[in-house]
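Input chain follows. Return structure tokens only.
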Amino acid sequence: NFSAFNTQSGNDNLIAYNGSTPASPQIGVYSGTTIPGTIVSTIGGCITFVFSSNNSNNNLIFTIPASPTRV
């Protein structure tokens, strides 16, 4: 689970994919100040994160624990 999350809403996005590459099925797109809920992988225990930004209003903050929980 995330312990903090703050990006420029609609312009800076954290995209989660269910697998080891961005070609994997998309789990969700997260933006703004709402902390995402639990993100679970159903493909090999891997989640890939891609961050996209418009490079404006840099207020990027997101924190993911160093030891994710394996379910």
